[in-house]
Specification:
31% of the residues lie in helices and 17% in strands. The strands form 6 sheets. Strands 3-2-1-7-19 form a 5-stranded parallel sheet, covered by helices on one side. It binds NADP nicotinamide-adenine-dinucleotide phosphate.
């Protein structure tokens, strides 16, 4: 069986390692950039770190005893990913600088067209394109007229120097909250433009002492116990809370956020501005103990007046004031529903995935769509992208995909696709359950909503995710 994997980020690396472990040798990983690591390669903004605990943020096949911090900096995760890809023998499978432009099913397999102009034929395709990488710029008039430097947080220029500059950050999500504290010592001033306040869960990031790292190396059992403990805490805590399965947990998270605000923001007017009017967990929880102290520093400012326009020298707010800046940072997030575009994906009988998913992306168990045989998605529709550690999600989906690959056979591979009626029933069940989640009931807007206004995440527990993707049930698929 010939397999194409699209993307050499976390999920592409995990797919490659799983393919090798299962004895597949004829697979190619196509990566449009020049390096592995996906999100951790792209996001190099000051302060970038993972807010999932380091010891939980690892591949099951590559435990890491020597994380430097309890919450790892982005660069360290990137080098971990590079190391894993090298150690596991993926180098000879990865093609860098090759973007996939088109996938077309020809009745038996997939014709894959690359940006290099070539075509290849594969029996199966695994999409490992990630979810949060199509950056979103705000639709603000005059954006192109700004004469200073401006960039999206995920496109931070290697040579950007903020020394002594007046910097605007548009946005108040996880990214902006990491950037602000990290730049204040360097810049002349930084202003955060906040349209909607966020609940901020306190979290102090501490270095991991050498003795602890040594103990994890000496006794791998300690490391796996810690992994199990952290996983249990996340999955039973926040992840269960947001889908309506742990009211007590949600209350505790809300109280911690409220305390964080009350204890760390003394000025009542500022506190009022920073207080959300929706429920905690509705937007993806922001985690930081550095943000509130940072926003109160002398060279920081919180601007809550709406943005009217961007002008050559700065940002004009709706109250008529012009705020002058040298640099504008767009920490305005990503479009998770366009992860595969502009790639064209043509399935069986000329079905165009763009059209099939024009309103809502739907899949069976988040990994396969009817009409697209032997095309497998990691991080596909309704993946739990905001709930669990993405690495765990990806590995669970890959395990299930390996089961589907086994069904089609290696020697003369057949075809597999999900039954349309089963997929529809599955998605109806999602629609019913999603209504009980905090993303829908919490009274906020967020990137969880797809263009049709539906929340597209995983509405159930981690246990359900694991059970649903443990092993394919052949009766849900058409095999030929
Ligand atoms: P985000 O959460 O989508 O936040 C975007 C921000 O930009 C919001 O505050 C939004 O305001 C604001 N915004 C958008 N358009 C605007 C406009 N026209 N005017 C003013 N403000 C505007 O994006 P993100 O912070 O990049 O985070 C995205 C996701 O990436 C996170 O939720 C998380 O899943 C992931 N992430 C994870 C980590 C980590 O540590 N693991 C770190 C960073 C990011 P509104 O709220 O009003 O829409």
């Amino acid at each position: 069986m010939r397999i194409a994997v699209i993307g050499a980020g976390a999920s592409g690396i995990a797919a490659g390692v799983n393919l090798l472990n299962a004895g597949y040798r004829d697979f190619e990983i196509f990566e449009k950039a020049e390096d592995v690591g996906g999100t951790w390669r792209d996001n190099v903004y000051p302060g970038v770190a993972c807010d999932v605990p380091s010891h939980l943020y690892r591949f099951s096949f590559a435990p890491k005893a020597d994380w430097t911090m309890e919450y790892a900096p982005g660069a360290e995760i990137h080098s971990y990913m590079s190391q894993v890809a090298a150690d596991k023998g993926l180098a000879s499978h990865i093609h860098f600088g090759v973007e996939i432009l088109r996938l077309e099913f020809d009745g038996a397999g997939w014709i894959v067209t690359t940006s290099r102009g070539g075509e290849g034929r594969f029996d199966a395709v695994i999409s490992a394109m990630g979810v949060l990488h199509k950056e979103v710029y705000p639709d603000i008039p005059g954006r192109d007229t700004f004469v200073g430097q401006s960039f999206h947080s995920s496109k931070w220029p290697v040579k950007a120097s903020l020394d002594g500059k007046r910097v605007a950050i548009i946005g108040t999500g996880s990214t902006a909250v990491q950037i602000l504290p990290a730049i204040l010592d360097q810049v002349k001033s930084a202003a955060m433009f906040m349209r909607t306040p966020q609940w901020v869960f306190p979290l102090v990031n501490k270095p991991i002492p050498e003795e602890k790292k040594a103990a994890f190396t000496r006794e791998p059992k300690r490391l796996s116990n810690l992994y199990a403990f952290l996983g249990e805490r996340l999955n039973r805590g926040l992840a269960a809370s947001v889908v309506g399965l742990n009211e007590e947990g949600l209350r505790e998270i809300r109280e911690a956020c409220e305390r964080n605000l009350q204890e760390n923001v003394a000025d009542l007017e500022l506190r009022e501005k920073l207080t959300p009017d929706y429920q905690v967990g509705c937007k993806r929880l922001v985690v930081s103990s550095a943000f509130y102290p940072a926003i109160q520093r002398e060279n920081a400012e919180l601007i809550t007046d709406g943005i009217a326009a961007i002008e050559p020298t700065g940002i004009r707010t709706e109250d008529g004031r012009l705020h002058a800046f040298d640099v504008i940072v767009y920490a305005t997030g990503f479009d998770p529903f366009n992860f595969h575009r502009p790639m064209k994906i043509i399935g069986r009988d000329g079905l165009d995935l763009d059209e099939v998913w024009s309103e809502s992306a739907q899949a069976l168990r988040s990994v396969m769509a009817p009409g697209f045989p032997n095309l497998f998605f990691i991080g596909g529709p309704n993946s739990p992208i905001g709930n669990f550690s993405f690495l765990l999600t990806a590995e669970t989906q890959i395990g299930y995909i390996m089961g589907l690959l086994a069904e089609i056979g290696r020697e003369s591979p057949g075809k597999i696709e999900p039954r349309a009626d089963v997929t529809e029933a599955y998605n109806r069940a999602i629609e019913v359950s999603i209504k009980n989640t905090i993303w829908v009931t919490g009274g906020c807007n967020s990137w969880y909503f797809d263009p049709s206004g539906k929340v597209a995440s995983w509405p159930w527990s981690y246990e359900r995710f694991e059970a649903d993707l443990r092993k394919p049930d052949k009766s849900e698929y058409i095999l030929s």
